[in-house]
Amino acid sequence: MSAVKPLEAVARDRVGKGAARAVRRQGQVPAVIYGGNKPPQAIAIDLIRTRTLIYAGGFLTTVFEISAGGRKVRAIPRDYQLDPVSGVPLHVDFLRVVAGQSVEVQVPVHFTNEDAAPGLKQEGGTLNVVHHTVAVEVAPESIPDAITVDLTGKAIGDTIHVSDLPVPAGATLILDGAEVVATLVPPTVLGAEVEAEEAAVAEAARAESAAEAAAEEGTKED
């Protein structure tokens, strides 16, 4: 389970696009805390701190204790916006954490012991991951850092379904149990795709060379 992290913030009394731009000019990120049957609270958080937390991973599965306006509130990020060019955080939405409630979060799926999987180690297969994260409904204090899949003994052709995932106590997977998370595919599957792509590139290069040669020949005749 991820530890609750402290997060300093400043309460905002103005909202809207103009106010948000003013906050960003001061090196902060506008944010809002909502839910819990209480009015939304507009806050601003440090830009560098926010960017570090987002790019460190696990941001959307971390519960924060936010200090703002002389009060502390526990909340979990529900969404954030980044500048499409610079990647700088533009806004963050937080959901208040209420005792007894569950939240839906996307938890990363990690795979271990690849060296102990015959399909990968001896047979040269590839792990084809369909879902890098899975939706889990869980109490905020029990959000797992990740769901770990042991690949020991896995052979080519083996499939890992949602129902095979080791779910932490108290957590419920949202996806259907028959949904495929990952498969072990033979090397020829990806190899054939690579060969086809290389052949297409070579053919295009030959066609381009032939066109250039024809153009040069036409120039000489003129």
UniProtKB/TrEMBL annotation:
A molecular-function term among this protein's GO annotations: structural constituent of ribosome
A Pfam short name: Ribosomal_TL5_C
Positions of the UniProt region annotated as Disordered: 201-222
Superkingdom, taxonomy of origin: Bacteria
Low complexity: bias regions: 201-213
Gene Ontology biological process terms, A to Z: translation
Domain Large ribosomal subunit protein bL25 L25: 7-94
InterPro entries for this protein: Rbsml_bL25/Gln-tRNA_synth_N, Ribosomal_bL25/Gln-tRNA_synth, Ribosomal_bL25_b-dom, Ribosomal_bL25_C, Ribosomal_bL25_long, Ribosomal_L25_dom, Ribosomal_uL5_bac-type
GO cellular component, one term: cytosolic large ribosomal subunit
Keyword Transmembrane (UniProt): no
Keyword terms of this UniProt record: Ribonucleoprotein, Ribosomal protein, RNA-binding, rRNA-binding
Residue stretches making up the Large ribosomal subunit protein bL25 beta domain: 103-187
Coiled coil region boundaries: none
Keyword Ribonucleoprotein: yes
Quaternary data: Part of the 50S ribosomal subunit; part of the 5S rRNA/L5/L18/L25 subcomplex. Contacts the 5S rRNA. Binds to the 5S rRNA independently of L5 and L18.
Family: Belongs to the bacterial ribosomal protein bL25 family. CTC subfamily.
Function: This is one of the proteins that binds to the 5S RNA in the ribosome where it forms part of the central protuberance.
Record's protein name: Large ribosomal subunit protein bL25
Native source species: Methylobacterium aquaticum
Organism lineage string: Bacteria, Pseudomonadati, Pseudomonadota, Alphaproteobacteria, Hyphomicrobiales
